[in-house]
């Protein structure tokens, strides 16, 4: 397998040279650029340290030792390397703005110790189970999000999976997906475990991406929940991927795990059959009444390190600075963007936890010189559902498969 040598991608422009190499997808205002192909390394029998220095290579064969070597790099050097890789594949000024809405809150039968929506500690959290939102109410929320500048609308339901609910509720969710997709927005859902048939129905409704976080390493997972296994998560991701829907999968930092568990999570994500389209990096927001209520939050530098590692081992994925951002300063967030984050959740609430206000984020974008990513701008990673060409029943299985292969090429 050919590997990309250290930053050997060159750029030839008809105007002044640009400092960072950008893939042809990236926008270079005022200049027409032509990319020279990266040169293969002559020696394929590379030792560990050499292989991890081949920054920018798209690989799904990372070893844990290699990911740990990346993760353990001195922080400023790690951020520099991640920023360099980021500029190979992305416009560093462009950041996706997503809105997350809880369409069905509380009453979840799962036992995730970080989550306030589990029925196992409803008395301690005081969170009452609510019914699935009405179609029109959800549609109006999506309209407000679009008018506020969000380009991806994400809907979460506190279910073990659609199999636990009635046909009417499931069909309502499918209709939500179809109607919001009609607004010209990217649509994402997180509904628990999916069967292959349920994933296919979501794709036919026009779903862009499906979120199903791995949360932590396989070894630490049993300390986070007892109601499902790690393999259940991986099976749902496989069903989503096979249906032609883009995978959104990441984890939560600060649940008492060690550094090697963080390495294990990132290794698991980086060695999936295809890198996820999106990788959310969440900082634990400890909720009163949950088993993790007294867990101290991770530091901003912990999150920067995880984002930078994710950017290096999954160069083309969107890395989302997700929950817990409310505790970070502007400088903290700036370093996250420098390290390769290129997506955020905006709006003052993420499911049941508080989030940064939109006006605050708009000021941050202006201060840092960031721009909002338009909907359906082609993604380097993910399925054809992410570029807008695969939406609704008109997207056949063969067509989705062909476009997905083309995007991964």
Automatic annotation (TrEMBL):
Q: What class of enzyme is it?
A: transferase
Keyword annotations for this protein, in alphabetical order, are: 2Fe-2S, 4Fe-4S, Biotin biosynthesis, Iron, Iron-sulfur, Metal-binding, S-adenosyl-L-methionine, Transferase
Radical SAM core domain: residues covered: 93-325
- Composition-biased stretches, type Low complexity, lie in 383-402
In the Enzyme Commission scheme, what number(s) does this protein have?
2.8.1.6
Per UniProt, what is one Pfam family of this protein?
A: Radical_SAM
Region Disordered, annotated ranges: 383-409
Q: In which pathway does it act?
A: Cofactor biosynthesis; biotin biosynthesis; biotin from 7,8-diaminononanoate: step 2/2
Family from the record: Belongs to the radical SAM superfamily. Biotin synthase family.
Cross-referenced PANTHER family, in alphabetical order? BIOTIN SYNTHASE, BIOTIN SYNTHASE, MITOCHONDRIAL
Name the HAMAP family on file: BioB (MF_01694)
The protein depicted here goes by the name biotin synthase
Organism from which the protein derives: Coccomyxa subellipsoidea
């Amino acid at each position: 397998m050919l590997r990309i040598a250290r930053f050997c991608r060159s750029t030839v422009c008809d105007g002044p040279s640009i400092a960072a190499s950008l893939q042809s997808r990236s926008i270079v205002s005022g200049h027409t650029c032509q990319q020279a192909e990266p040169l293969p390394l002559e020696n394929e029998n590379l030792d560990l340290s050499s292989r991890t220095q081949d920054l920018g290579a798209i690989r799904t064969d990372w070893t844990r030792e290699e990911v740990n070597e990346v993760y353990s790099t001195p922080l400023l050097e790690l951020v520099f390397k991640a920023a360099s890789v980021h500029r190979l594949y992305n416009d560093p000024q462009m950041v996706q703005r997503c809105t997350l809405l809880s369409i069905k809150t509380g009453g979840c039968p799962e036992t995730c110790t970080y989550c306030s929506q589990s029925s196992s500690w409803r008395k301690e959290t005081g969170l009452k189970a609510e019914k699935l939102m009405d179609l029109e109410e959800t549609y109006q929320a999506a309209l407000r999000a679009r008018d506020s500048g969000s380009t991806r609308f994400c809907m979460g339901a506190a279910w073990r999976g659609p199999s636990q609910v009635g046909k009417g509720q499931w069909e309502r969710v499918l209709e939500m997906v179809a109607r919001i997709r009609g607004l010209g927005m990217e649509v994402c859902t997180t509904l628990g475990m999916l069967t292959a048939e349920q994933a296919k129905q979501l794709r036919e409704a026009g779903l862009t991406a499906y979120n199903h976080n791995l949360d932590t390493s396989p070894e630490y997972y049993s300390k986070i929940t007892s109601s499902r296994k790690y393999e259940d998560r991986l099976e749902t991701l496989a069903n989503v991927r096979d249906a032609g829907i883009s995978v959104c999968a990441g984890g939560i930092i600060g649940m008492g795990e060690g550094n090697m568990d963080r390495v294990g999570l990132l290794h698991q994500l980086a060695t999936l059959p295809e890198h996820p389209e999106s990788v959310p990096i969440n900082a634990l927001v400890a909720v009163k009444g949950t088993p993790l209520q007294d867990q101290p939050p991770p530091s901003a530098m912990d999150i920067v390190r995880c984002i930078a590692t994710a950017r290096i081992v999954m160069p083309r994925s969107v890395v989302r600075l997700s929950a817990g951002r409310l505790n970070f300063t502007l400088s903290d967030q700036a370093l996250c963007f420098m390290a390769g984050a290129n997506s955020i959740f905006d709006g003052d609430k993420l499911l049941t936890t508080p989030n940064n206000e939109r006006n605050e984020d708009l000021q941050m974008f202006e201060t840092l010189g960031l721009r909002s990513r338009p909907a359906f701008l082609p993604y380097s990673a993910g399925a054809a559902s992410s570029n807008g060409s695969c939406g609704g029943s008109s997207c056949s299985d063969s067509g989705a498969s062909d476009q997905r292969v083309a995007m991964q090429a």
